[in-house]
């Protein structure tokens, strides 16, 4: 029972980031479908964070009451920057890039996120770096591979891979996969800039959590200010077109609700919790999983075609990614098994002090049945 609990505790960060990638994959497919139906990316961003604020804020008010620190001007300025970097800049550029490309392509391009985050973390000394270490060398080579793989996916097409579930797709339906080189480059540039903004968000969130260690409250603030800032941007970009704000019971509403709850509310909170112990590079290191899920879902649901060049680029990205993950595998082993066992004994122990009949101090430590029961007389 104890071993199973320890395994689960160690697996929680991995389960968390895998859940995030499944959530992002669903968002990519739903958002692409909504954008294809003419939904404005600016309006989608606003509705997404309005939903996230409505869902997260009540939990933040109730659950963070005892741990929420006092709001100061420096903290508030960081939150304003956070709400601008990811909810406004990154998401609008990401959705605009998706318009020019496909959901699969957009998800694949985000694989440069770990590389950008890694470089920034090294510059800010949030990441351990020893040039002579083979694990550090693996991080550097893996980082370069992710960037190279993303470039291959951008400029290289190759033949279409005819999968058994896409054989019935007509050439017209598959045009979403056959994007032009000009649109591919334009979309990739937008997504790249968005990834840089996202990486800045990750780094700044990790820094902010050190002075404002209330993940739910921080998430609620980011979503609220992101809604206000996104609304200002949308009103400017969509001025004279009030029809874009209308919603019906369709894919547009589903995309806004799903991405708001899962990909803003839960995602900001989960990545904040994981980041406290594992750092921002670990959180971004599983992006290729999202690409694989989106590629499968996109070909099933949206009829997107898969090209050999993108499979080759994706393979390079995944190989580079897991070099980075292997290089980081020792970075967050905070304690040895012996120390962990001692810590668990300490957590299960009760300590009592007193004096015996000869006026000597007595310290007694009692533990559970699995522990030990030493006593020391002084």
TrEMBL record:
Transmembrane segments: 43-63, 75-97, 103-126, 138-165, 185-204, 216-236, 256-274, 281-301, 307-326
Gene Ontology MF annotations: transmembrane transporter activity
Protein name: WAT1-related protein
Residue intervals of the EamA domain: 18-151, 186-325
Primary localisation category: membrane
Keyword list, A-Z: Membrane, Transmembrane, Transmembrane helix
Cellular compartment(s): Membrane
One family name in Pfam for this protein: EamA
Domain of life: Eukaryota
Stored SUPFAM superfamilies: Multidrug resistance efflux transporter EmrE (SSF103481)
Entries under InterPro entries matching the protein: EamA_dom (IPR000620), EmrE-like (IPR037185), WAT1-related (IPR030184)
Lineage, top ranks: Eukaryota, Viridiplantae, Streptophyta, Embryophyta, Tracheophyta
One GO location term (cellular component): membrane
Membrane topology: Multi-pass membrane protein
Family: Belongs to the drug/metabolite transporter (DMT) superfamily. Plant drug/metabolite exporter (P-DME) (TC 2.A.7.4) family.
């Amino acid at each position: 029972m104890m071993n199973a609990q320890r395994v689960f505790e160690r697996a929680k960060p991995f389960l968390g980031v895998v859940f995030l990638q499944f959530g992002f994959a669903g968002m990519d497919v739903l958002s692409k479908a909504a954008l294809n139906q003419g939904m404005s990316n600016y309006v989608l961003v606003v509705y997404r964070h309005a939903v996230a604020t409505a869902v997260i804020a009540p939990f933040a008010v109730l659950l963070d009451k005892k741990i929420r620190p006092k709001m100061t001007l420096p903290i508030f300025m960081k939150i304003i920057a956070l709400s601008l970097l990811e909810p406004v800049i990154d998401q609008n550029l990401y959705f605009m890039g998706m318009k020019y490309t496909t959901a699969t392509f957009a998800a694949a391009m985000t694989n440069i996120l770990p590389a950008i985050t890694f470089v920034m973390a090294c510059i800010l000394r949030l990441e351990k770096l020893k040039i002579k270490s083979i694990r550090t060398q693996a991080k550097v080579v893996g980082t370069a591979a992710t960037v190279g793989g993303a470039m291959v996916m951008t400029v290289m097409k190759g033949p279409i891979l005819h999968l058994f579930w896409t054989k019935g797709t007509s050439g017209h339906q598959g045009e979403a996969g056959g994007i032009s080189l000009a649109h591919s480059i334009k979309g990739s540039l937008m997504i790249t800039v968005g990834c840089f903004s996202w990486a800045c968000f990750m780094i700044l969130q990790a820094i902010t959590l050190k002075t404002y260690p209330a993940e739910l409250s921080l998430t609620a603030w980011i979503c609220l200010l992101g809604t206000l800032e996104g609304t200002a941007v949308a009103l400017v970009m969509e001025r004279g077109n009030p029809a874009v704000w209308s919603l019906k019971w369709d894919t547009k509403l589903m995309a806004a609700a799903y991405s708001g709850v899962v990909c803003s509310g839960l995602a900001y909170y989960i990545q904040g919790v994981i980041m406290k112990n594992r750092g921002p590079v670990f959180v971004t290191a599983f992006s290729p999983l999202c690409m694989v899920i989106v590629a499968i879902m996109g070909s099933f649901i949206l009829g997107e075609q898969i090209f050999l060049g993108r499979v080759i680029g994706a393979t390079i990205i995944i190989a580079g990614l897991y070099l980075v993950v292997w290089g980081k595998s020792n970075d967050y082993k905070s304690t040895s098994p012996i120390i962990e066992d001692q810590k668990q004994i300490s957590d299960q122990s009760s300590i009592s002090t007193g004096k015996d009949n000869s006026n000597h101090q007595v310290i007694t430590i009692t533990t559970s049945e699995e522990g030990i029961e030493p006593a020391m007389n002084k």
